[in-house]
Amino acid sequence: MSDVLMNVSHFGMSFLDPYLMFLTAAGVFFGIYVGAIPGLSVTMAVSILISFTFKWGVNEALALIAGIYYGGVYGGSRSAILINVPGAPAAIAAALDGYPLARLGEAGQAIGLTTVMGVFGGLIGVLCLAVGAPMLSNLALLFAPRDYMMLAIWGLLLVGSLSGGMMAKGVFAGALGILFGMVGLDPLTAEQRFTFGSVHLSGGAPYVAAMIGLFGVSEVLVQLHELHFPVVKQNVSKLMPSWSLIKKHLPLASRCSVLGVVVGALPGAGGDIAALMAYDHAKRTVRNPERPFGEGAWEGIVAPEAAAVGSVGGCYIPMLTLGIPGDAVTAVIIGALYIHGMKPGPLMLLETPHLFWFTVGNLALSCIWLAIFGFMGIKLFAKIVEVPKSALLPMIVILSAVGSYAIENNPVHIYWMLGFGVAGYFLKMYGYQVGPVILGIILGPLLDSNYRRAMISAGNDPLQFVSEFFTSPVSLVLVLLLTLTLASQTRYWAKFFGLFGGRRTED
Fold it and tell me: Tag placement on the chain: N or C end, fewer CB within 10 Å?
């Protein structure tokens, strides 16, 4: 009984300490605006702030970092909805229907709905962290390199859902992204690949600069064809979505939140893959959306936002219980814990349970602040899309250049951004989505390194490599998922497997 009371007291510490509450609130507020600016990543913000927390207590440092983490993941959807430039990779899926909603004049309510569903997903993530951390961590521990390889392949196959149902175009765009992701140093041998002797290419293609170019600069070039179009006035009179709209999408948000937690608990997966899978899940299971997906479906912003924010709680699971980062941000947080004398890993729950329950409580408080700050500034944000394009488009290019340069203070990233911007423009002109290219750049190195590790573990024997897929329960489940994903892209799926895959929205 005393242990339970002790855990409850540590859970409520952030709620009772005004200073910790202020730090969490400041982190959420700062994170929202960092996440909304393309190029200013949450990882970069956390990395910079850790240098200011060396002399702080561990609770104060974790409170500020947790707030920034939640705010940054949520904030990326704002710019995705308003100007079709995701502030973070996890917001790529939200842009597919969020931006069409803004063009229909519904940016205010779209941001309001993502706020509600993001908070809901965040609370689900915190609950799963508190209740299911050991269980999900043990599941993640079972994953071998071949399983991470298949997870990357699965993510790339899902791009068919991001390409208007055209699997061939989605796979081509994803493969193009993998090709760019291979540029740089070999992860195992450190030999140069596709660098053509250039030192500037040895660092590889910076995916943040690529994201800014493919979404920001390419959109500017596309919008040049539409300068004569009238400005769409945004409806911001009612920011809070109706209870009927929220209630209608709660089941989808619940499923996608849990999906985000599970994916976030897999080391290296993170919110971007979680959001992609959630969008694909929504597109397959929602039978009668009010609008088609890709044209302003509410489900198209509910699913990825709930999964992305829910994945934050999932990413904390392997970090706290195994000492393995769930994504780039938690990798930085692990460094902060070591700096403050903590040792995240299997013994953490036994040796320092108070730190675990403090973290759970602080994440719950971050969700509350997210609900408060999420509805602040929406009217100001919504005015962005009402600015004349002749003034807005040059501002987007300037901010894109600044954001690309700010990643590593490297002017070469600006050239990467411009190159990807031109490439994205031509891809869009010929009917290709640019989201799969970004996902290919992100997942390519994960696919490459884990494939080679799996081959090494199989003794470089192809037959042994293939047979291992059918000897592990985890691998077998992933093989089945890959098979179902491929089958669902055929024209026979709706007829023979409609019960499992749902009805295509365009039918």
Answer: N
Indicate whether 300 belongs to any domain.
yes
Residues 466 and 471: their CA atoms lie apart, in Å, by 10
Q: Which residues contact 446 (CB under 8 A, 6 or more apart)?
A: 148, 149, 151, 152, 268
Whether 69 and 309 have beta carbons less than 8 Å apart is answered as no
Q: In whole angstroms, give the CA distance from residue 352 to residue 294.
A: 47
Average pLDDT (50-61) is: 74
3-state helix/strand/coil string of 152-187: HHHHHHHHHHHCCCCHHHHHHHHHHHHHHHCCEECC
Determine the structural domain holding residue 311 and report its residue range: 2-501
Instruction: Find the helix packing angle between 328-339 and 58-83, rounded to 10°.
Output: 160
- Residue 333 covered by a domain: yes
The answer to whether residue 486 is domain-embedded is yes
Residue 409: both structure tokens together = 């203070």
- Phi (first) and psi of residue 60, to 5 degrees: -65, -40
Cβ atoms within 10 Å, residue 78: 30
* pLDDT-based confidence at residue 422 (cuts at 50, 70, 90): very high
In the block, residue with structure tokens 């910790």: 20
What three-state secondary structure class fits 85?
coil
- Chain mean position to CA 496: 33
| Two structure tokens written together for 200 | 């500037």
Q: Is 193 helix (H, G, I), strand (E, B) or coil?
A: strand
| Cβ–Cβ under 8 Å, residues 482 and 153 | yes
Is 506 in a helix, a strand, or coil? coil
Q: What is the pLDDT of residues 112-170, one digit of tens each?
A: 888 888 899 889 988 988 887 766 556 656 778 888 788 778 767 765 555 545 667 77
Helix axis angle, 353-374 to 18-36, nearest 10°: 60
- Residue 188 has a CB neighbour count (10 Å cut-off) of 11
DSSP string over 171-232? HHHHHHHHHHHT-EE-TTT--EES-TT-GGGTT---HHHHHHIIIIIHHHHHHGGGTTSPPP
Q: Provide the number of structural domains found in the chain.
A: 1
In a domain, 506, yes or no: no
